[in-house]
Amino acid sequence: MSTEDQDDALFKALGHRVRRQLLDRLKAGPQTTGGLCEAMPQLDRCTVMQHLRVLEAAGLVVVERRGRERWNHLDALPIQALQDRWIGPYAAHAAAMLAGLKRAAEDGQPQHRDKALPG
Q1: CB 16 within 8 A of CB 51
Q2: What digits encode the pLDDT tens for the residues 24-46?
Q3: How many of the other CB atoms lie within 10 Å of CB of 36?
Q4: Which residues, including other chains, have CB under 8 Å from residue 64's CB and lie 6 or more apart?
Q5: pLDDT reported for residue 109
Q6: How would you write 50-91 as a 3-class SS string?
């Protein structure tokens, strides 16, 4: 699977509220599929399983079978990669822009528009 396909799968997995709730539950530690189903009574078992399959395909959940039980483990490495690739650099850029704006305001200098922006 290409990096772009992996990123697409990761964003798809994180794009649904139920899947984010499942990941939040797995932050505390591995849980059985039955335990996750009990924690989300508004959903039937089949729906929970479908969401877990999407999370597994994105590499966010690793499944371990112990007898008849299916244990779901959070793998946070794809989220860290997302942070490193997307969130961190954008947050650093935004913070630098805000720091520049603060300095200009404290110095009483008018803020100049970026020449690349229309208007």
Answers
A1: yes
A2: 999 999 999 999 999 999 999 99
A3: 21
A4: 30, 70, 71, 73
A5: 67
A6: HHHHHHHHCCCEEEEEECCEEEEEECCHHHHHHHHHHHHHHH
